[in-house]
Design brief:
By secondary structure, the protein is α+β, with helices and mostly antiparallel strands. It is built from four helices and 16 strands.
Length: 249
Amino acid sequence: MLGFSRIIIVAGIAALAGCAPQLKLNFDNAETAMGYVNTKVYSHGQVFIWDTEAESLTHVLDIQAGDFDTSNSGTVGRRYSKAVNGVDAEISGVQLSPDLQAKLETRAARETVIELNDVETVRFVDPRYVMNSPEMAAWRIEEAQIRGANSQRYRYVLLSGIVNAKKATFSVAGTKGEKNGVEVTLGDTTFKLNVIGESVDLWENSNAPVLYNVNVFRFRKDPEGATGYRFDYDTSFPKEDYIVALKRS
């Protein structure tokens, strides 16, 4: 197992006036450009029901990824990915206006990078086919009986791709190998971000995926289909809402 509960980078924020407050960035379940941080140790092929009213995710099914066509990137020596959404930040040691604090948290998160070594990406070739395949027919019939009448409330989340790596490192971009950290200017104030201690190393020699990707589906009536219902992609879902449900589950 991974042997961690939270992914936190503690960065020093030094305003040029000389004070040294702290900024804690928590990357649990955050979205990066390459996928979501796999804090909960999910596996390729898992299916979750997303209750959009209760803002919750429930694991309902494990699809055997080997039963369907997948694409494999092969091993790539090194990849970098920036954080995008879902980074929680907490500032201590300084009083900032709510607006300035929000802007600083956003900028600090953008300055953070995940470095992956010996990277392999595996994805379903056709996630929608997987959900509508003959192998899934019995489950679609069961879901139609349970949630078909109220299908607008629910989304179905397929963990359709994974990113494996021998090692993953989180760090503030620009601080690696440099004496001075990244400078962030907001209004008339300039802050410096510095990693306190070493960067955070995770997943070293672990078999768990570091990142994962999802496809979100709606469950629709399909009178012409064998089961009466089918799954269609929902590309309009708010990613921020998904992250809220992910963190609560």
